[in-house]
Amino acid sequence: MEWHQLPLGPLQTNCYIVSKENRTCLIFDPGEESEKLIKWMNEKQLKPIAIILTHAHFDHIGAVDDIRDTYQIPVYVHENEADWLSDPALNGSHLFKVGKLIQGKPADHVLTDETNLTIGDFAFNILKTPGHSPGSLSFYFAEGNLVISGDALFNGSIGRTDLPGGNHHQLLSSIHEQLLILPEETIALPGHGPVTTIGREMDTNPFLNGF
């Protein structure tokens, strides 16, 4: 299994593509620049089979409908943010006015109490990591030794909690109870900025000390 990081859009939101040897792939958080993303995947001869969202803030969902329509693939989001895809007031595109207002189509699959998911040849764990937003999820691939942490955990930082539905204490609890229990060598793929590891954040992240 391989993974690729593509920063997209004005906020350079990290889109991740996780792929298998058979060229099938999952797309996480296609935030913007759908043409750039489609061109990249076509050059790599990848075959997307699903779009999965860590959460539904505008900078993580801007290219969802373009990618879904191009490849005719389903979209997955947590139930707490299912309405956000079509509501600019909830997804933040109305508040921040960075690019277009996002009024997308509903997700094809709404995640509720699932703790694991299999899509095609991909099997992974769903980790509920609310705090940055009420429906934030992280996705752990034991096979690839990686976790896609969205805007919960960053390299040397954590997600902001001053947006609607944010909760600082809840975010810290999510990180400690869901992410820091993973093997220390686990590669953490954040929603913005460079990758890190769980062990590095345990040792050096100043926001996690003293919790």
TrEMBL record:
Signal peptide span: none
Residues covered by the Metallo-beta-lactamase domain: 12-192
Keywords recorded for this protein, A-Z: Hydrolase, Metal-binding, Zinc
InterPro entries (alphabetical): MBL_Glyoxalase_II, Metallo-B-lactamas, RibonucZ/Hydroxyglut_hydro
Matches recorded under SUPFAM superfamilies: Metallo-hydrolase/oxidoreductase (SSF56281)
Obligatory cofactor(s): Zn(2+)
Protein's recorded name: Glyoxylase-like metal-dependent hydrolase (Beta-lactamase superfamily II)
